[in-house]
Design brief:
By secondary structure, this protein is α/β, with parallel strands linked by helices. The chain has six helices and nine strands; from the N terminus they run βαααβββββαβαβαβ. β2 (69-76) and β3 form a beta hairpin.
Length: 215
């Protein structure tokens, strides 16, 4: 099935003019009960906060709730130049189970060694009758900024579905009444939507069609 999601896109676009500064304090996280050791991160700088709030349209409250932090990485040691790196912590029941990094200046991603493969925002969809599945951490945060707190993002794009086997993820989705598949409007996103529809059934899966220029 297909769904036009104009209201969501408009809400996200309306936040694009919001500018906020500041950040919460960071701490060095110890290894959790699952043996995963998150990397140490820093408070968001004003520049990164401005990028996330003004350029990407996210609210400061959403950044704080999802514990968005940053790191610095060396780009050219000879010139002593560096880049800011956004850190997305995949929280599941109070534990960081995966950690994904994204450079600000270029679209480059990597993960902390030992990360699990789980949905970003998995706790958001527990017990929800309607679930939104997206392709990207920023997309999930954008939905939350727009007031949609029943959204989660697939990890690492649409090329793998190992996240379905993470703990009780499949059961959580099985129990939902509707799954809105809001992956990207490309071949990979369409393929993922088709696979998820096959797994969970066409009677409950709805393919979101993003407005031109929104995704």
């Amino acid at each position: 099935m297909h769904l036009s999601w104009l209201n969501v896109a408009r809400k996200v676009e309306a936040m694009a003019n919001a500018v906020a500064f500041g950040a919460t304090c960071r701490r060095e996280m110890p290894a959790n009960d699952y043996g995963f050791q998150p990397q140490r991160s820093l408070a968001l700088s004003d520049a990164v906060t401005l990028y996330l709030t003004q350029d990407r349209g996210l609210s400061l409250a959403v950044l704080e709730r999802n514990d968005i932090s940053m790191q610095r990485t060396v780009v050219d040691s000879s010139k002593r130049t560096g880049d800011s790196v956004i850190v997305f912590s995949y929280m599941v029941a109070g534990n960081v189970r995966e950690q994904k990094m994204r450079r600000v200046s270029v679209k480059k991603f990597w993960q902390t060694p030992g990360s699990a493969r789980c949905l970003y925002g998995l706790d958001n969809i527990v017990g929800q009758r309607e679930v939104i599945l997206l392709e990207g951490e920023i997309d999930m945060l954008s939905c939350e900024t727009a007031g949609l707190t029943n959204a989660a993002s697939v990890p690492g794009g649409c090329g793998s579905f190992t996240w379905l086997d993470f703990e009780n993820t499949r059961e959580i989705l099985d129990r939902s009444d509707k799954i809105y598949i809001a992956t990207d409007c490309d071949e990979g996103g369409a393929s993922a939507a088709a696979h998820l529809t096959e797994v969970f059934g066409a009677h409950k899966c709805f393919r979101v069609q993003w407005r031109c220029g929104c995704k």
